[in-house]
Design a protein that fits this description.
With about 725 residues, the chain is α/β, with parallel strands linked by helices. The mean pLDDT is about 95. The strands form seven sheets. The chain has a six-stranded mixed β-sheet with strand order 9-14-13-12-10-11, with helices on both faces. Strands 18-17-22-23 form a four-stranded antiparallel β-sheet, with no helix packed on it. It folds into three domains: about 5-330, Glycoside hydrolase, family 3, N-terminal domain (TIM Barrel); about 345-570, Rossmann fold (3-Layer(aba) Sandwich), CATH 3.40.50; about 590-715, Immunoglobulin-like, CATH 2.60.40. A hairpin with a 2-residue loop joins strand 6 (about 215-220) and strand 7.
Amino acid sequence: MRLSENTERIDAYKLRARELVRQMTLEEKVSQMVHDAPAIPRLGVPAYNWWNEALHGVARAGVATIFPQAIGLAAAFDEDMMEAVGDAVSTEARAKFNAQQQYGDYDIYKGLTMWAPNINIFRDPRWGRGHETYGEDPFLTSRMGVRFVEGLQGSDPNYMKVAACAKHFGVHSGPESLRHEFDARATMQDMRETYLPAFRALVQEAGVEAVMGAYNRVNGEPCCGSRVLLKEILRGEWGFDGHVVSDCWAIKDFYLGHRVTSNPTESVALAVSNGCDINCGELFLYLTQAVEQGLIREEAITRACERLFTTRMKLGLFDEPEKVAYNRIPYEVVDSPEMRALNLDVAKRTLVLLKNDGLLPLDKSKLKTVGVIGPNANNRKALVGNYEGTASCYVTVLEGIQDYLGDDVRVLYSEGCHLYKPHVGGLGRDNDRISEVKKICELSDVVIACLGLDASLEGEEGDEGNEFASGDRENLNLPGLQEELLKTICESGKPAVLVLLSGSALAVGWAQEHVPAILQGWYPGAQGGRAIAEAIFGEFSPEGKLPVTFYRSTDDLPEFTDYAMTNRTYRYITREPLYPFGYGLSYTRFEVTDARASTDCVTADGVDLRCKVTNTGAYAARAAVQVYVKAERAGTPNAQLKGLRKVALAPGEAAEVAIHLPAEAFSLCDAEGARSVEPGAYSVYVGQSQPDARSRELLGFAPERLELRCDAAITF
């Protein structure tokens, strides 16, 4: 049973929290509402630091398993895998917490409140933090996020394993350079159809314990003090019962950036009055002054403290240690062989094969020399992205290929060029590695080019290393001399494989035209180089699908600051993409046939779908069965992902797959945000991709189409 379902147990924790907070002075309550909460010895309250991170592994607290970055996890299109990753992360978090508590360590990144996942919609590929998300689609983001939270929070009927946090609520995706002053203007239709569904799913389905506000304003209100977002929608409409945390130092933006208040005291009063319970930062210490000035009633502070201590009660932090089974998780599980094996398996599932003219997989027995060239070939930073932990062992692409080939095949390596600068050596001329590149190409039977980005080029504003646009990208091109390097490799006449490591879409149209094989590796985690090597040499078949659209050019994008969904993401674009959302090739071939629905009329009970999936190729692999729904009337979005199932099949094996589409899968919102299923015709597509022309062109086949109708409106 999920803790969120155990109402009686939660009520007991609330009563205990209320009794504890009742004994506190105003000053003591206020002291507990900042992220570094001090001890209250007279009440037996230990110190607690609320700030911890677990985006794709326990972060910033020493050694832990570093899984692929979140955008790569999303590319697996695998809900069960997401829960397994969440469970592994929380197991290591508890193990590390138990050890830290043993030695009285209450420092930052040492608690059980994990500020993950990031479920913002990756609406624009220029956004530097997009690789922290699960992509551009609200349905996929919801499914991945729900299962990750369930893995993090656990299934114990009495205690949470860790407390997850859905961030950044609710309309937030850059620009990073403007986030402390920016007002994201979004229609209620776009909010309800795109920006908010994943948050609602995590609150109402997964019982996520915390929600973090964003830095920016939404429609005039700062997110961390928004009456509409926090009071009306989150707590009022959705019934959220956990706590709300501000983004770090976001409250000071109220008066310094957004200028909706005049000073710190007014700012903290606005935030807490509208439902923000804890401040990542120290500004909430002004709450005592706010009460004295009559800007806020002490009851609001009491209510916030009760929520915070209820969370700590749910985690078992005020119970005898032996009562909490999670306290017995030993430190030895951290970075264990089992964790490394899981990490490698997960990394394999995230890889997306974008192009293959028959070159892949490579046959090791037919090779004498392999050239590995590029700034990401031996770049550890390109393995992990941001919000990362520390691995005890990193396997870069170069190291993975060297380990795989051993002494049987010679591997020649060149950095090729700097990731984004015109030369590698500090005193070298521009393009100072090009002669080395040409010689390696001459000597090699095949060349593997490793290009792309790393967290020095895309990430959060203020992070050390972001070189351009406060962490955002100025365009979608390969940076620096990388495309010139790729052209030099191809001009050698040797077969070339392009491995892209990035957290976002790249405009690689030239590569699509000229390179025989392209593999998107994302930021594949500490074991990523091993997974990529094994994919290239055919130890398994890539199975990932794109969680974002790859555009042909930056010119295909609206203004970065425009939050309207028009011409954004696969759901609304009108131009043909380079690689569509949901696309990915395989070494084997799957056939999805005999698609059928339980009814041809959509009712409040939804529709049950069935289809047959057959592996007609030579590789054992997993197929991602995707279901898209299109309302066949003017002014509606393109076909949208509404169903998903992963199925593992051996060569020649077939399986029957069942997917339920609830009535809401057919719904859209009006201008006021009211959701309904309108009478009319609906197309349902069942297969391995979107039904768009570009997917059909790249794959050579199309999903099956079912014609359904709705006879009477269904409202929600």
